[in-house]
C-alpha cells in the first residue's frame, strides 16, 4: 500500500515539475511554435532556480540548439532539462539562503528592493545578468503599484522542487 502511495506522489510531483518546465519555456515561446530563442535559455534556467555559469549555458545550448538556427525546440529542451534534473547538475539554492541574500542587499530592512537597486547588484556583481535578463525579471517581479520588488514573494518563483 505504501508503495502505491509513493508512486502516486512521484507521479504528481513529476507532473508539477513538467508543468513548471513547460510554463517557463512557454513564457519565452513568443511565436507559439514550441521554440524559444537561444538567448532566452539563461533566463529560463534562472526562472527555474538554476544558476549555471555562462560556460554551462553555452554547453547546454550547443547540445540542444536546432541546427544552429538560434532556436531551441521544446522536444529537445525537455529531455536535456530532464537530464539536468536527474544529474542534479545545478543544485538548488535553498529558500532560506535566497532570503538571506536578499536581506543582505536590503540594507534598510524594508522587505523589498527597488528595481534600480536590484539591477545594480545583478548586473555588476558576480556573474552579471544582461540588461535584457534584468528587464524580463523586473517585469515579472516588480509590484506595479508601488514599484518595489518584495523578495519574499519572489523566492518561490526562483526555486523548483526537484525530487523525482
TrEMBL record:
Database matches in InterPro entries: EF-hand-dom_pair, EF_hand_dom
Source organism, top-level taxon: Eukaryota
Cellular compartments per GO CC: organelle
GO molecular function: calcium ion binding
Domain called EF-hand: residue spans: 16-51, 93-128
Gene3D superfamilies with a match to the protein in the record: EF-hand
Keywords on record: Repeat
PANTHER family for this protein: DYNEIN REGULATORY COMPLEX PROTEIN 8 (PTHR46763:SF1)
Name of the protein in question: EF-hand domain-containing protein
Native source species: Oreochromis aureus
Lineage of source species: Eukaryota, Metazoa, Chordata, Craniata, Vertebrata
Amino acid at each position: 500500500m505504501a508503495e502505491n502511495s509513493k508512486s502516486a506522489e512521484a507521479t504528481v510531483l513529476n507532473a508539477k515539475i513538467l508543468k513548471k518546465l513547460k510554463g517557463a519555456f512557454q513564457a519565452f515561446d513568443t511565436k507559439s511554435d514550441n521554440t524559444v530563442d537561444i538567448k532566452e535559455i539563461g533566463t529560463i534556467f534562472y526562472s527555474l532556480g538554476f544558476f549555471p555559469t555562462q560556460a554551462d549555458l553555452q554547453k547546454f545550448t550547443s547540445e540542444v540548439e536546432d541546427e544552429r538556427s538560434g532556436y531551441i525546440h521544446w522536444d529537445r529542451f525537455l529531455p536535456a532539462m530532464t537530464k539536468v534534473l536527474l544529474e542534479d547538475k545545478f543544485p538548488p539554492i535553498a529558500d532560506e539562503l535566497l532570503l538571506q541574500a536578499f536581506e543582505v542587499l536590503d540594507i534598510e530592512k524594508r522587505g523589498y528592493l527597488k528595481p534600480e537597486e536590484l539591477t545594480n547588484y545583478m548586473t555588476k556583481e558576480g556573474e552579471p545578468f544582461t540588461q535584457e535578463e534584468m528587464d524580463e525579471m523586473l517585469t515579472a517581479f516588480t509590484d506595479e503599484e508601488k514599484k518595489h520588488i518584495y523578495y519574499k514573494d519572489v523566492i518561490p518563483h526562483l526555486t523548483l522542487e526537484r525530487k523525482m
